[in-house]
Design brief:
Elements: E1 12-18, H1 25-35, E2 42-47, H2 54-59, E3 64-68, H3 74-84, E4 89-93, H4 103-113, E5 117-121, E6 124-126, H5 131-143, H6 145-151, E7 159-163, H7 164-170, H8 182-190, E8 195-198, E9 204-206, H9 209-214, H10 216-233
Parallel strand pairs: 1-2, 1-4, 2-3, 5-8, 6-9
Antiparallel strand pairs: 4-7, 5-7
Length: 245
């Protein structure tokens, strides 16, 4: 008998949306090159109509595929990356994150272990917050877990991986959502096609710049009301947002 050839491993594409990120993107891409590059099929940065030196930063990394999305908005940049990616699993991080060692391996392990897994996400840790401020900010994800237990879905937009076929069945990202609620919307719609896992071990170091600029209470309130609004009405409660760079 002829042996059946092993099924090829799913390819992972990494997508990084970037709007005016020349200050943070170099550290992100350095971390990607060190910890992720040899574990994924491709690295894509979507320039979301930046007016600073973001494009020049990307040009310093020959291994990175450059895409341009002229319509500003995080969901539009995510969609551009999805359409330009070739992977079976599309992983997303933000331009102010520092993907750690083992991160891509966790994606591979979780999707290999569970064929019914649609989407994987996990909490942030804040590399530029200190002391009690960092502890409280990181602890928000612990307090949010009861909501996840009830709904069965939760994710953060700067740290998730999703199967291509799930995104296709979802119709991609909802580009009518400008900012708040986009991650809850992705998770809710993905749940219709499989399990949405929020793993406390799938941690992404990120900047706390938005928390420092807008304050923890305001940020927690905005994310909470928009999460609840997505759960109950399938649309966010707020539309406006502030770019923090």
């Amino acid at each position: 008998m002829t042996a059946t050839p092993p099924k090829p491993k799913p390819k992972i594409s990494l997508v990084i949306p970037a709007y005016n990120e020349e200050a943070y993107l170099p550290a992100c891409l350095d971390a990607v090159m060190l910890n992720v590059a040899d574990k994924v099929a491709e690295i894509i940065v979507v320039d979301n109509n930046s007016t600073d030196g973001t494009k020049q930063v990307i040009g310093r990394y020959p291994a990175v595929k450059y895409l341009f999305e002229p319509r500003k908005g995080i969901t539009r940049a995510r969609q551009c990356g999805f359409l330009g990616a070739s992977g079976d699993i599309i992983a997303y991080v933000d331009a102010d994150t520092l993907p750690p060692g083992g991160w891509a391996e966790q994606i591979r392990a979780e999707f290999d272990a569970d064929p019914g897994l649609a989407c994987l996400s996990g909490p942030y840790s804040f590399y530029d917050l200190t002391g009690i401020r960092n502890a409280i900010s990181t602890g928000w994800f612990v307090t949010a877990r009861p909501l996840y237990s009830v709904t069965g879905y939760m994710m953060v937009g700067g740290n998730f991986a999703i199967r291509r076929d799930v995104l296709e069945q979802m119709g991609g990202f909802d580009d009518s959502i400008e900012f708040y609620g986009e991650d809850a919307d992705i998770a809710k719609r993905a749940k219709a096609y499989g399990k949405v896992l929020f793993s406390r071990n799938f941690v992404m170091p990120t900047s706390g710049r938005r928390l420092k600029k807008q304050g923890l209470l305001k940020m927690a309130g905005l994310y909470f009301i928009n999460y609840v609004s997505i759960v109950l009405r399938s649309k966010p409660a707020t539309k406006g947002y502030q770019d923090v760079r």
